[in-house]
Amino acid sequence: MTTLSPSFVGVDIAAAHLDIALHPQGIHFRVPNDEAGLDACMERLRGHSITAVAMEATGGMERLAASRFQAAGHNVHVLNPRRISNWRQVVARQAKTDRIDALLIAEFAAIVPLQQTYVSTAQQRTLRDLAARREQIVINITNSKKQLARAIVSVIRQSIERQIAFCTQESAAIEREMDAIFRQDAALMRQRELLESIPGVGKLSAMLILAELPEVAFLPPKKLASLVGVAPHPLHSGTKTTKARITGGRARIRSKCYMMAHGSIVHNPWMRTYAHRLLARGKSRREVNIACINKLLHVAHAVLTRDTPWMPQPPLQKKS
């Protein structure tokens, strides 16, 4: 019986098509970036022993391909584009085409150890899109209110006020739609209720956490902190030592986490004691906020994985 050699698949994603490459075979083909194209892709890959499938995050255009590959039972890795850009410099690859990019991604997946990416369900993807749209509307409302404060002409003021009223209605409609999705899914609703049990986390905050950070119940807290962008990274070189800094992460959920951490400090005596203890040690307000976000992520992960509502003594993970 012939044993198939392992293959690593690299996918370069464009709006209209997908470039598929296999390493080490060097095979390349292109399919449309739609359901029919992915059906053809799965058929082409049927005779290969696929070890991993890697692709870059491309602002959401990768979601369909990632979900289809995962549904087919493959290990899917959605990569930060910066990693592939850095890899291009490592291997001194100057040329750049869709075919070369797909081969480069496949080569990267074969050489660099990767962790499987969490791929959201259809409901979670819908919630995330709704949360993104709500964020756009909220920004529009904020900007309109600034314009209203400076407007003098009455006609302009009335126009801005109508725009604010319309956007407010749209935001409320999106929140109702998100609420309906949660109520139709018992598992999602249970997760929302568990998060709402944490002082400082309300209904909307819980929905936004589960929409923007669906990995909250699956990844360990330290990885969640990196995803949100609140994991301090040390900067030491020789005799030079600088303060650890946070960088990267998902900006939308990070801004929400700042507000949730503030609310938790106000309404949760346990978190307030923790924050005051850090301030007494000389930490700045910003450092305290970041530390409280990390603590909040630990607690959120714990209540979800243990399926236990918040208790005055937080159910933090036990050290192994």
Number of helices: 12
**Could you say what the CATH topology of the largest domain is called?**
Nucleotidyltransferase, domain 5
Q: What CATH architecture of the largest domain do you see?
A: 2-Layer Sandwich
At the first level of CATH, the class of the largest domain is Alpha Beta
**Mind describing the biggest β-sheet?**
5 strands, mixed
Outline the low-pLDDT stretches. Answer: none
Q: Helix amount, in percent?
A: 55-70%
Q: Give the class from helix and strand content and strand pairing.
A: alpha/beta
Which percent range describes the beta-strand content?
Answer: 5-15%
Please provide the count of β strands.
Answer: 7
Helix-strand sequence = EEEHEHEHHHHHHHEEHHH
Summed over residues and divided by their number, the pLDDT gives a mean of: 87
Distance between the termini: 44 Å
Rg calc:
23 Å
Tell me the number of structural domains: 3
Spatial strand sequence of the major β-sheet: 3-2-1-4-5
Overview of this protein structure:
The protein has twelve helices and seven strands. It folds into three domains: 6-111, Nucleotidyltransferase, domain 5, CATH 3.30.420; 122-184; 212-305, no CATH class. The protein has helices at residues 35-45, 63-71, 81-90, 98-111, 122-150, 154-184, 186-196, 203-212, 221-228, 251-267, 269-280, 285-305, and strands at residues 6-13, 17-23, 27-32, 49-56, 76-79, 233-237, 240-245. The chain is α/β, with parallel strands linked by helices and 320 residues long.
